[in-house]
Here is the input.
Amino acid sequence: MRCATLLSVGLLVLQGPTAVAEESPLRLWYDRPAGRWVEALPIGNGHMGGMVFGGIATERIQFNEDTFWSGKPMDRQSPEAVEALDRIRRLLFDGKQKDAEKLAMEKFMARPLRQETYQTCGDLVLTFDLPEDAETENYRRDLDLDAALATVSFTHRGTTYRREMFASYPARLIVIRLTADTPGKISFTASFTTPHVDNRVSVVDGDTVLLNAGATTHKGTRVPCELRLEARAKILAEGGSVSASDGALVVRGADAVTILLAAATNYVNWKDVSANPGARCAERLKAAEGKRFAELLAAHQEDHRALFRSVTLDLGTTAAAKLPTDQRIKQVGNEPDPGLAALYFQFGRYLLVASSRPGSQPANLQGNWTAELFPPWDSKWTININTEMNYWPAEVTGLSQCAEPLFAMVEDVSVAGRRTAKMLYGARGWVAHHNTDIWRGTEPINNSNHGIWPTGGAWLATHLWEHYLFTGDRQFLATRAYPILKQCALFFVDTLVKDPRSDGKWLICGPSNSPEQGGLVMGPAMDHQIIRAVFNAVIEASAILDTDAELRGELLALMDRIAPNQIGRFGQLQEWLEDKDDPKNRHRHLSHLWGVFPGSEICVVKTPAFTKAAAVSLNHRGMGNVGWSLAWQVGLWARLAEAEKSYAAYRALLSRNTNPNLFDQCFSGRARPFQIDANLGGPAGLAEMLVQSHVRNDECRLSDPKGAPFEISLLPALPLAWPEGRVTGLRTRGGFVVDIAWENGELDEAVIRSTLGNGCRIRCKTPVKLTPDGDATPAPEAGTVRKDVLEFATDVGRSYRLRAAER
Ligand code: FUC
Here is the structure.
């Protein structure tokens, strides 16, 4: 029965590993080796990233270590900034934008003007005793997302060779296993290559190749580098011989080989580079070398699956699902392939697990993968959209734990940003502008026309509040989120200024910009939306924690004076304080729609007029050719309850901005760059199509444990292309885990598990009723509040099943 199926899927997930069939829908697979980097398959454990090419004669594992960056601990604020601040504002109020930008360039910007860059380590190269053009049969290269395992296999002259590769978080290593079904057939040479000029490759202990490299100076900053990398590949051969030859290890006639790849730098934190990379590698290798491959793999998979299996998604399967992944991408748009959307969704979750784990750096512009010394935009953390987008799927798709590196970075940035607040603005609290790097830069960089954007840190801070809303973790709220949010709010208490054009009626933020367009201005809409979100969080958190009553009163009073959202002459939501939006503007940034998604102050249920204006603005923008912008549109249209437009953006993302290995292509049609943001923002948008929980229930505050703080909207933007499907494990604000099954485009049933015991308020177009059967407790008293809203009390740990009322 369908009901039992949905519930049992949920239980299976909770009970842990189950066998996944060979024809798993969770695999990327190919019938030939990767030629380009964007065809190779990514593995990662947060600390290390690897790209597996699967060449027949040469296997190339291009790898990264998350702390290998150019530069060194440093302070970059301009000592002349604070006295220029008021002059810059006055020039802007007087309409002299170019003069304001010039003055800001001279006095206000970071020194040096750019931040540092993330860099590749290089490649572990395995050169096999096979001709480059060896004829092979049954070639297959795949990435199993559930097993977190990349596999290459082929048959050559009757022997089937197999390579299995994974990046283990528990072991902090990349592990490679080479086998053949004929004994003594494994012969190869192993060595490292690297683009860093300062490098040395050698062999130690008779079985380990060692790469030593110094980071390469950033061309734009010229700051000397203080980070050094050590990588060690330890070769454990079974049978055959291993010998050293000129910086390489030569293996002859082995039956099987395990290679353990460790990499580390001397980075401790943004102020300290005193670690010993060699000792770090040695420690990890020592802990792993006594273990069998199967043991290392089992520990890795248990760790990975505990996260990855928390959410399942089935959108149905068509004939296209039998094709290699690169061919499936080519035919999106011609053939229905809902399974590819589900694969893309799970690939995004896989990437987040592989690039962001407690103790690692957060996912940067390329996650933790890059093959370059000078990757686009330094592969740093661009915080005017990209970094935040990386974390949009974390809470809703059951990967809350993967957001920990972001929170740790925000803690660092909030410390670094206090100095910037003081030196640039003479303000309390902390501020960060539109980028940060591993040295936790918070100053404005690049150019005053887009680098002076003081709400980057504030946007990041909202992620800590969201974490609380999803998990109800009061300890986290008290000790980590609240201090950051409060100091963030204090910065704006001190820096919001009266707008002379509204006779001082409105408080506005500036100098600033609406990210990356329109130049330096006062009062872009996005800033005010974000500041309101931060103030709201502090108001509510201080009440929950019963602290700072005075500040709460102050923020409540200020809140009403912050310039409101405005509807302009085309019926659009104004991006700027002035009604100057151009309906022909196709800019990739959708900044003023922040209040729709990921913010929530504009929503269909409560602010229909602004919702309509936001849709006008989004229609004006068109779809464009930028991956992350499309991913943002998926979520935006879903929040605007426009299922078909949300789906169209998702399909465009898959067909135009997706590489053969499913990596996002930032600009469609160009060779470079890969950017991970859309790989993560796309799945977050898809989750918004299936469940939403951003609408606050005004009759109840979170401090009321029996109330329903948020409405859970089931299938709010389900597109026609996915008439049937099933999702399990999605999380909502207020602490619910949601499984939904639907048929003929309508909800069939849902199971809602309560983790916090909050009241539950369900909104669904299909009328639903609570059912008393199965695992759920007897149906509690449930009263329909309005036609499409159902509300009921819940107990912690209990599941509640809803079914379409008509059935
Ligand atoms: C912002 C975007 C660009 C790019 C960069 C990393 O500057 O406007 O498109 O994504 O970040």
User: Anything to note?
Assistant: The radius of gyration is 27 Å.
